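Notebook entry, structure prediction.
Reason for the run: the old model in the group folder had no record of what sequence produced it. Starting over properly, with the input documented here first.
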Amino acid sequence: MTSENVAEHEAVEAAAAVSAKAVDDQLIDELVTRAQAEGLQLYAQQCSELYTAGGFAAVRRTAQAGLDQVGPTAVLYRWLGLAHAAEDEDDHDAAAERAYQQGLASAPDDLGLLVCYLELCLRADAFDYPARAGRVATLRARIDELAPARSPEREHVDDALSWAGRGYWDDLVAAAGRGELRQAESAELSDRVASALRTGSTGTDSSTAAGEDRSRQQVGRRGRNLTKHMPTWGGA
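New structure, fully documented this time:
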């Protein structure tokens, strides 16, 4: 083999090696992307289940672990912010705002982040947190640009705005309504237990039965009265 043939052969082998490396790199990138997507889905599902169960601290740990492993993603920043905001404390509200801002830095058009951030700003006291409260108009305008009419996001915003517009007396009536509901449920449960005990025992006089009947009637009246005081505004 001449020196020219050797050089040509080496050039072909080098080109083949470069091509093979490029293919390997592409496959590796695809595998990493797939693993990240699957990991993101797993973390998001765990956050959803924990949030539903009321484990807000666990949601925050899970979301942060996902961000550390997968990298900046809107859905995990959203869960992180929601789990802070759910605590309804000033320091957690500040942490929620940081999470939403970090998420929007990497995904500025994510409607989920925008809506969650809007809800947080709607909750802010304009006197204590003027900057946060002042972002409502900007966020609302951006959401209106991105969310089509009658979309779930737009409806969520309308509900949040309605919720934010209620006054002191609306809050008072809502709290009273929740208290009446808990009392009615407790009375109904006690009535069921008493009825079960009466059915399983002997010698129960008619006055006891009459008293339990009156208790059932009172529970029914509470329930009917409660419906008149239930708030008509949407919840966030």
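Summary: The first helix runs from residue 3 to 52.
The old model has been moved to the deprecated folder.
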